[in-house]
């Protein structure tokens, strides 16, 4: 059984993890509250490595299995896995360190530059190309509660510098497209309209998630997801009210949703329509909300393009990459540099 690194650190004990590629002296936590993600410095390395231990065995193993795909291993826009350690003492993954996620960057009151936003969008789309065919096994979708295309899973190195690097992380939620689940996938705030309806997963879900993530990074307030209702709802459970308000925000921001949902979700949609009708959602249109954030109209149009309500009309990854807003020569040149960084020896790279 693997030792509990969290308990050892609490007792101020030295923790050295022995891998096949290196020795990793653990120096602290990356996220204390999770108690499973730690920092380790290797001798001679410029940056730390991330040590992630097992918490949920199924998700942990799925992450490891997903890194076995060549399409993921070779994609420079996905956070890399250095090695997997499984012995009598430790069971963990050693992952590339980046610095911050976009949620942390936003908390630092960082005013996003348009160039940085373009690099974020283009990098995530480049990462999503890895899931198009999964080495001949069909498309995958990077989704699952808290393990999806969200601000906390979009990592960045040097966001304030001239050459920011963006990579997608946390592959525990990567599952085959077309799957149907009894429970909704995707976190409340970035859940696509078709998933609220109970429809099958598709790569279009990831495009939606990217659109919401960009909107949330730009906006000082959360545009999508659960909000407090402005009138008493005594007949709804907390889960129902959260679902109804989240759906209502989509309707308020983007427009009416076709009522082709699975009948078991009809009550949520009825409640959402009622919220919009009585003016309980304190938002204007998506375009108007984003234009308040000091970004240009082309940026707003791009985000709206990603957030088409009908997944059949939502752009594919390739179509989104071809959008004029992203075809900025400077962005493409900087991302060529990002690619070169990812191919350097591990001691010289931007991540551990």
From TrEMBL:
Keywords (A to Z) from UniProt: ATP-binding, Kinase, Nucleotide-binding, Serine/threonine-protein kinase, Transferase
Upper classification of the organism: Eukaryota, Fungi, Dikarya, Ascomycota, Pezizomycotina
UniProt cross-references to Gene3D superfamilies, sorted A to Z: Transferase(Phosphotransferase) domain 1 (1.10.510.10)
PROSITE patterns noted in UniProt: PROTEIN_KINASE_DOM
Species of provenance: Helicocarpus griseus UAMH5409
Record has Calcium as a keyword: no
Name of this chain's protein: CMGC protein kinase
InterPro entries found in the cross-reference section: Kinase-like_dom_sf, Prot_kinase_dom, Ser_Thr_dual-spec_kinase
SUPFAM superfamilies the UniProt entry points to: Protein kinase-like (PK-like) (SSF56112)
Residue ranges crossing the lipid bilayer per the database entry: none
Protein kinase domain location: 1-326
Molecular function via GO: ATP binding; protein serine/threonine kinase activity
């Amino acid at each position: 059984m693997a030792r509990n690194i969290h308990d050892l650190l609490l007792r101020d004990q030295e923790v050295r993890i022995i891998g096949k590629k290196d020795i990793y002296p653990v120096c602290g936590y990356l996220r204390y509250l999770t108690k499973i993600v730690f920092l380790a410095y290797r001798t001679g390395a410029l940056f730390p490595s991330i040590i992630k231990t097992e918490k949920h065995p199924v998700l942990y193993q799925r992450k490891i299995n997903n890194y076995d795909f060549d399409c993921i291993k070779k994609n420079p826009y996905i956070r890399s896995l250095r090695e997997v350690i499984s012995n009598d003492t430790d069971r963990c993954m050693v992952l590339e360190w980046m610095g911050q996620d976009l949620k942390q960057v936003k908390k630092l009151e960082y005013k996003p530059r348009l160039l940085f936003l373009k690099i974020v969008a283009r990098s995530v789309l480049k990462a999503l190309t890895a899931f198009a065919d999964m080495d001949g096994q069909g498309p995958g979708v990077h989704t699952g509660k808290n393990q999806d295309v969200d601000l906390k899973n979009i990592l960045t190195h040097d966001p304030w510098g001239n050459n920011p690097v963006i990579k997608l992380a946390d592959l525990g939620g990567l599952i085959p497209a077309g799957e149907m689940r009894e429970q909704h996938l995707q976190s409340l705030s970035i859940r696509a309209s078709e998933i609220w309806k109970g429809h099958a997963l598709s790569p279009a879900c990831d495009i939606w998630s990217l659109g919401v993530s960009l909107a949330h990074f730009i906006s000082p307030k959360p545009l999508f997801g659960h909000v407090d209702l402005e009138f008493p709802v005594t007949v709804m459970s907390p889960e129902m009210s959260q679902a109804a308000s989240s759906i209502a925000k989509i309707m308020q921001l983007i427009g009416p949703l076709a009522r082709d949902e699975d009948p078991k979700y009809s009550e949520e949609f009825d409640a959402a329509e009622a919220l919009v009708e009585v003016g309980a959602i304190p938002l204007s249109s998506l375009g108007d909300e984003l234009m308040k954030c000091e970004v240009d109209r082309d940026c707003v149009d791009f985000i709206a393009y990603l957030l088409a309500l009908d997944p059949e009309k939502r752009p594919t990854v390739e179509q989104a990459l071809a959008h004029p807003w992203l075809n900025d020569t400077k962005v493409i040149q900087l991302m060529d540099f990002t690619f070169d960084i990812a191919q350097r020896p591990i001691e010289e790279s931007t991540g551990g």
